[in-house]
Automatic annotation (TrEMBL):
Presence of the UniProt keyword DNA-binding in the record: no
Gene3D superfamilies xrefs: Chaperonin-like RbcX (1.10.1200.210)
UniProt name for this protein: Chaperonin-like protein
Keywords: Carbon dioxide fixation, Chaperone, Photosynthesis
GO molecular function: protein folding chaperone
Superkingdom as given in the UniProt entry: Eukaryota
Record flagged with keyword Cell inner membrane: no
Matches recorded under InterPro entries: Chaperonin_RbcX_sf (IPR038052), Chaperonin_RcbX (IPR003435)
One GO process term, biological-process aspect: ribulose bisphosphate carboxylase complex assembly
């Protein structure tokens, strides 16, 4: 999450990360986050500064849902996929008939939408309903007890930083190479 305050001074406009300022956020009763006043402690401006916009980064193009909501939906479908993998591995070791039924169903139905997949599995037959109930149970247990949420956050941040660094490095190397060739001519 990137929070930035936009300040306008007489000389220029500056974007400062909130982490560089001592900011206290007050949320009045009945208001939503993003619509509350800020008070600044130990911040002594050297010139006239006005706050023109101070809130969480706006992300357009997601309609009614937030990026976090979209990510949660994708994780929800991923948890269904994980649960199906767990159940198929269990069935393969102790109930080959149920394993074959589930594998045949998987061949005919997409697992991209976890809820749609489970709903179709429940309506296939009574034995398939039992498999669907087991998948729902495993999905819930995995999400609540086994998925490492802190590890997800750390890995996502690490991947973003490493990817950004690699892409910027590759670009600089490419453009530096081109600039050298042009200066040699």
């Amino acid at each position: 999450m990137i929070n930035k305050c936009y300040f306008s001074t007489m000389e220029s406009s500056t974007i400062l990360p909130l982490s560089h300022l001592a900011v206290t956020c007050h949320k009045p009763h009945g208001t939503t986050i993003g619509a509350f006043p800020f008070s600044f402690k130990q911040f002594k401006p050297t010139s006239n500064i006005t706050i023109s916009n101070c809130q969480k980064m706006h992300v357009s193009g997601f309609g009614e849902a937030s990026p976090e909501s979209k990510a949660a939906k994708n994780l929800h479908n991923f948890f269904t996929y994980v649960a199906v993998r767990v159940v198929t591995a269990q069935l393969e070791s102790y109930n080959l008939e149920a394993y074959k039924e589930l594998m045949e169903f998987l061949d005919r139905h997409s697992i991209n939408d976890g809820d749609k997949f489970c709903a179709a599995l429940m309506r296939e037959s009574s034995s398939h309903k039992s498999l669907a109930m087991r998948i729902l149970e495993v999905r819930s247990a995995y999400c609540k007890r086994d998925f490492e949420w802190d590890n997800l956050e750390q890995l996502a941040k690490k991947m973003a930083d490493e990817s950004n660094t690699r892409l910027m490095r590759d670009y600089v190397l490419e453009t530096s190479h081109v600039d050298k060739e042009e200066s040699d001519e």
